[in-house]
Amino acid sequence: MTEIKAYGAETNTSDLKEMNIERREVLPTDVKIKITYCGVCHSDIHTVKNDWKGSKYPVVPGHEIIGRVISVGNKVTHLKEGDLVGVGCMVDSCRECSACNDNLEQFCENGMVGTYNGKDKHSGGHTFGGYSESIVVDQHFVLTIPENLNEKEVAPLLCAGITTYSPLAHWKVKKGDKVGVIGLGGLGHMGIKFAHALGAHVVMITRSEGKEKDAKKLGADEVLISKDAEEMNKHKGSFDFLLNTIPVKHDLNPYLQLLKRDATMVLVGAIEPLEPMHGGSLIIGRKSIAGSLIGGIKETQEMLDFCGAHNITSDVEMIDIQNINEAYDRVQKSDVKYRFVIDMESLRS
Amino acid sequence: MTEIKAYGAETNTSDLKEMNIERREVLPTDVKIKITYCGVCHSDIHTVKNDWKGSKYPVVPGHEIIGRVISVGNKVTHLKEGDLVGVGCMVDSCRECSACNDNLEQFCENGMVGTYNGKDKHSGGHTFGGYSESIVVDQHFVLTIPENLNEKEVAPLLCAGITTYSPLAHWKVKKGDKVGVIGLGGLGHMGIKFAHALGAHVVMITRSEGKEKDAKKLGADEVLISKDAEEMNKHKGSFDFLLNTIPVKHDLNPYLQLLKRDATMVLVGAIEPLEPMHGGSLIIGRKSIAGSLIGGIKETQEMLDFCGAHNITSDVEMIDIQNINEAYDRVQKSDVKYRFVIDMESLRS
């Protein structure tokens, strides 16, 4: 048996078979999905390694889930057997609070239920994610995937896609806006695609040289090397919007200088302490810095429909589940263009 | 002669008479003002002490200026001899750029001209502020003061007033909103008055106990002691808007926790590096932190008219110019309720 470090890290390795953890019976509003593909998100690794504390083992990661409906409860309205569907970062929420009523289940005031490592009200234990053969999810949290899209490449839209689409939509990025996407990884490459599809003039902002060709292929109009003070100065005060996908601690000040008066930079990557910000970076020019977290279910469906209409998918590298440990090592070295997707058939073989 | 440290700090003390620095002749669009009162702003001290670098000596501070028009140029349209007028932090700007066209001269792309220590295009030297007998200013930068207000108490509206009014107006604070005003000094006491007049439920947020009575007199409905973790927790996620007037380096995270989803905290005080912010403080709840700098001339006039209509002025302590050094010492110890105003008649005696 292959020991999967992914499944519980060093503290709790296990064999592949345990990934097929038992799922609940299909309740009236439930949908049972045969998982075909599952994307590998950096959050999976953080949870496996207990970086954010609170990880419950065994961890079955995976919240970029694609599959086909294999059965539905008798109160399921909009889905049927055979439908191509997706499940993202959430599988439940209270559906009564002000956030849920505003279609922002990710901010549920009673706590949204994460697709893995969340508090499962059915089992009383914790939820298990998409590195598995199947999953049972309430219909409200099951998305419909446009059939014209390449199924394998759709998986990362459920997390990386909505994480970058939502702020562009919420802050109303439009045709002709000058938009900077900071960081070229799983999130950044989707940010470029969406901003380009929205008609923006897209500038890929990165510390590393040599990414120009790739960035332009994704839809960037320009590449700005953030280490080049002279180039940064040329772009000073010129951006309508900045999407900051950097996943680690960094200095915000040089990026804030790039914003126009009254413009906003949105953080989607760094859920950790940042380097000290200068008050003047915001006060001079009445600038804003904000955060954004995935997106609500309604907006996730809108994003998927937008992808269907514009033929947008993720750039992926396919792996078998047996290669998950190597994939994790490579994600941590940013050595993937731009998202690993697991062919879940490999778990069945 | 009294040596005034205010006037050039240790590097360049001077006597009172030198404050009556020569002013330019009255040009066609100029207004000459006999200064009656001038507020003492913390910026005056920063400039005198060269804290922000770039101070040019001799410094004549003062950008909360009240006075009467004594003469006008032949192209002056809306002001005449005898009018009660004010001058705030700016005396010029390019009036052609996008910021100026948007009535936001404070963000003039070619650089607004500060009332003191700014680059004076007329003299070729630097500008001199309101600790003086008179001043000559282009009519565009001269505000009309409602005659029903107490003249002495109006001076601080020109800086502390507009600095706090502008963000409340720009972020559309309205009746019933729960608004927190952080810090009770020159800025904070005006923030409370304005938020109260706008119909908000106002919470004064302060580190120090014992300010409850004063805060309530100013219009606060509640006082929240930021050092009390239990109290802070009770108010978590409940504020529609936070006006942060703290003038020094501080930790933003505890305040960001107080904001509702999608709400904003605006910095108006700390033009300096802040303590590290946690990305999650913004990402969880899609919160924003922004900055705001005084206000444009049009909005400053709106603020003064609002004050006229609601009978709002500053709480002041009157001093003679001969006591300026002691006043500076007390400002630095936050020992003033809430703004010193100099009776400029004392310079004439």
Automatic annotation (TrEMBL), chains A, B:
Transmembrane portions of the chain: none
InterPro entries the UniProt entry points to: ADH-like_C, ADH-like_N, ADH_Zn_CS, CAD-like, ER, GroES-like_sf, NAD(P)-bd_dom_sf
SUPFAM superfamilies according to UniProt: GroES-like, NAD(P)-binding Rossmann-fold domains
PROSITE patterns: ADH_ZINC
UniProt cofactor(s): Zn(2+)
Organism: Ulvibacter litoralis
Stated name of the protein: Uncharacterized zinc-type alcohol dehydrogenase-like protein
Keywords from the named record: Metal-binding, Oxidoreductase, Zinc
Sample GO molecular function, one term: alcohol dehydrogenase (NADP+) activity
Family as reported in the entry's similarity comment: Belongs to the zinc-containing alcohol dehydrogenase family.
Signal peptide as annotated in the record: none
Segments forming domain Enoyl reductase (ER): 11-342
